[in-house]
Amino acid sequence: MSWLWAMTDADLIARYDGRVPRYTSYPTAPHFHDGIGVGEYAHWLAALPPDAAISLYLHVPFCDRLCLYCGCHTTVVHHDRPKRNYAQALAREIGLVADRLGRRARVSQIHWGGGTPTSLPDDCLDALMELIRVRFDVAPDAEIAIEIDPASLPPGKLEALAQMGVTRASLGVQDFDETVQKAIGRMQSFDETRDAAEGLRRLGVASVNLDLIYGLPHQTEESVTRTARLALELAPDRAAVFGYAHVPWMKKHQKLMPEAALPMGLARLRQEATIRGVLAEEGGMVPVGLDHYAHPADAMANAAHTGALQRGFQGYTTDAASVLIGLGASAIGALPEGYVQNLPSIPAYEASLAQGRLPVARGVALSHEDRLRRAVIERIMCDLAVDLPAMAQTFGAQAAPLLAAAAPLSGFESDGLVEWNGARLRVTERGRPFVRNVAALFDAYLRGRESSQPRHARAV
């Protein structure tokens, strides 16, 4: 990289590397409130059209080890009893939601997340999947996805996943460098990861995905290059490459990491570019949105090409369902009327269900303007492009507020991050790492004092 380009990159980091939302929803979770509760959620469920396509997300807040980088709602549990109690609560919630729907609603996708979903006992996983199939009409071609820690796969667990009908599995890798692994409390060999991937494929799991992270302690351009090349040896169908979000004021265990060894600003940008070069240029994977990559034959690559890509709480997805029902402690659901989030405390979640109550903690109802801005932000995040007047026309709205919000795009264009003709914007390849900054221009909630609070991850 030449001196001139290095200076340019440094200037970009200085100008744009603030804290902005990841935009897995709009409005984003910090704007949820307790004015949305059980009554609103029950009404929203009952009002769903009979033909509404539904996705289910099941959150399992348990892990077998504490990974210091983790920002998820999870806890380390080694005994079966708490896990079995939680599985019973999940079963109650599945029943209550199905009762509110009043029918065996059609389900097109099921995603098990966490935490580490495979930490649940095999019989609990099997029983919950069977209950879902009884209470819902699971499509024969439904995608059933699960997140896996390859170092926490006891004997027989892969067979249990096959029994569940899993079609896609995401393997957490983060980094293969031992020095980095020690710093983040996650030792995991390449052989363990390879054995998990090969075992899944032998059992008929059609899609194996990998999760990588840059911006971790002791990472360098050289080390992330080695990790990305090892990842390619596993022939992933998809890869997600996330920038580490250091939020120790929210996740106290992150204070245990060596902060002085964290790469900052320019180093993070170069690590992201290095991984992108390995996966896309060496590996032939298709860059998707901000941080995903897909094999050219994968459905996600096709969705990105055709404009059908979607973005939700699990990141980028090909699922076109209009309804996401979140099940489990802290899980978030997205319905036409708005978002709802369950109680994050496991005891409170279980107690609510023991009393026969949906475990809703908070949410937000969508206004017409919210829906318009959500659509604009989603297309920017997914397509890296949007036609503002056309989008406003689709919603029967005036384009003027969107065009006013777009005024700073002239500066983005001068910096080479977007192409902007006064109506349609397109994020350039150079601007891809800064796409969240572009999307944030249309976030009506990011104003004044709230925008300066350290509640979001850094842009790069």
From TrEMBL:
Q: Which residues bind S-adenosyl-L-methionine 1?
A: 57, 114, 147, 332
Q: Where in the cell is it found?
A: Cytoplasm
Please name the pathway: Porphyrin-containing compound metabolism; protoporphyrin-IX biosynthesis; protoporphyrinogen-IX from coproporphyrinogen-III (AdoMet route): step 1/1
Q: Where does S-adenosyl-L-methionine 2 bind?
A: 69-71, 115-116, 174, 186, 211, 245
What is the annotated signal peptide range for this record? none
- EC number(s) given by UniProt: 1.3.98.3
Q: Which Gene3D superfamilies match?
A: 1.10.10.920, tm_1862 like domain
Entry's cofactor comment: Binds 1 [4Fe-4S] cluster. The cluster is coordinated with 3 cysteines and an exchangeable S-adenosyl-L-methionine.
Q: Which SMART domains match?
A: Elp3
What is this enzyme's catalytic activity, as reactions? Answer: coproporphyrinogen III + 2 S-adenosyl-L-methionine = protoporphyrinogen IX + 2 5'-deoxyadenosine + 2 L-methionine + 2 CO2
GO BP terms in the entry: protoporphyrinogen IX biosynthetic process
Locate the residues binding [4Fe-4S] cluster.
63, 67, 70
Q: Which GO terms describe its cellular component?
A: cytoplasm
Which superkingdom is the protein from? Bacteria
GO molecular function term, any single one: 4 iron, 4 sulfur cluster binding
Report domain Radical SAM core positions. Answer: 48-279
Name the cofactor(s): [4Fe-4S] cluster
Q: Where are the transmembrane segments?
A: none
Family annotation (InterPro entries): Coprogen_oxidase_HemN, Coproporphyrinogen-III_oxidase, Elp3/MiaA/NifB-like_rSAM, HemN_C, rSAM, rSAM_horseshoe, rSAM_sf
Entry keywords, A to Z: 4Fe-4S, Cytoplasm, Iron, Iron-sulfur, Metal-binding, Oxidoreductase, Porphyrin biosynthesis, S-adenosyl-L-methionine
Family membership, please give it.
Belongs to the anaerobic coproporphyrinogen-III oxidase family.
Q: State the protein's purpose.
A: Involved in the heme biosynthesis. Catalyzes the anaerobic oxidative decarboxylation of propionate groups of rings A and B of coproporphyrinogen III to yield the vinyl groups in protoporphyrinogen IX.
Subunit record text: Monomer.
> What is the recorded name of this protein?
Coproporphyrinogen-III oxidase
Its taxonomic path starts at: Bacteria, Pseudomonadati, Pseudomonadota, Alphaproteobacteria, Acetobacterales
